[in-house]
């Protein structure tokens, strides 16, 4: 991911064909390890491709990756499965949820030492 991020930074700076040296210099500037083998492999994979198309294809692939669900299945199995005894709900949990619902206010920090004045 760090190589992809560095590549995108170079693209955003206006260079449509970043070299391994550009990517390496960005990674080294933030103290990240720059592996030449991985950088060169990445550059060969994206060579001649439009970055927006690469991102679109990546999003499609990422959408097919399963996420969530497995934690819920583990929780059901730990309670004795779906056919086991009904789970007893914890009343403390409900109280915490209610507290969050009641406080919809947004609290902003106050800076008493700063005085703001608007021109008239």
Percentage of residues in DSSP E strands:
under 5%
Largest sheet: none
The separation of the N and C termini measures 51 Å
Low-confidence stretches: none
Spatial extent as radius of gyration: 26 Å
Q: Tell the overall outline.
A: globular
Please tally the β strands and state the result.
0
What would your notes on this structure say?
This is 60S acidic ribosomal protein P2. The chain has helices at 2-12, 20-29, 36-46, 51-63, 70-78, 91-102. Helix content is 55%, strand content 0%.
Keyword list:
120 residues, mainly alpha
In short:
With 120 residues, the protein is an all-alpha fold. The protein has helices at 2-12, 20-29, 36-46, 51-63, 70-78, 91-102.
How is this fold's topology laid out?
Elements: H1 2-12, H2 20-29, H3 36-46, H4 51-63, H5 70-78, H6 91-102
Helix pairs in contact: 1-2
């Amino acid at each position: 991911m760090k190589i992809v991020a560095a590549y995108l930074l170079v693209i955003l700076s206006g260079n449509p064909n970043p070299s391994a040296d550009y990517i390496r210099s960005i990674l080294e500037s933030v103290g990240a390890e720059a592996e030449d083998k991985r950088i060169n492999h990445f550059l060969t994979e994206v060579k001649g491709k439009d970055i927006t198309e690469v991102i679109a294809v990546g999003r499609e692939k990422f959408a097919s990756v399963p996420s969530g669900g497995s934690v819920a299945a583990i929780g059901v199995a730990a309670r004795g499965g779906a056919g086991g005894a009904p789970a007893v709900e914890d009343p403390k949990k409900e109280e915490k949820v209610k507290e969050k619902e009641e406080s919809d206010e947004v609290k902003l920090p106050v800076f008493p030492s700063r005085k703001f004045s608007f021109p008239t």
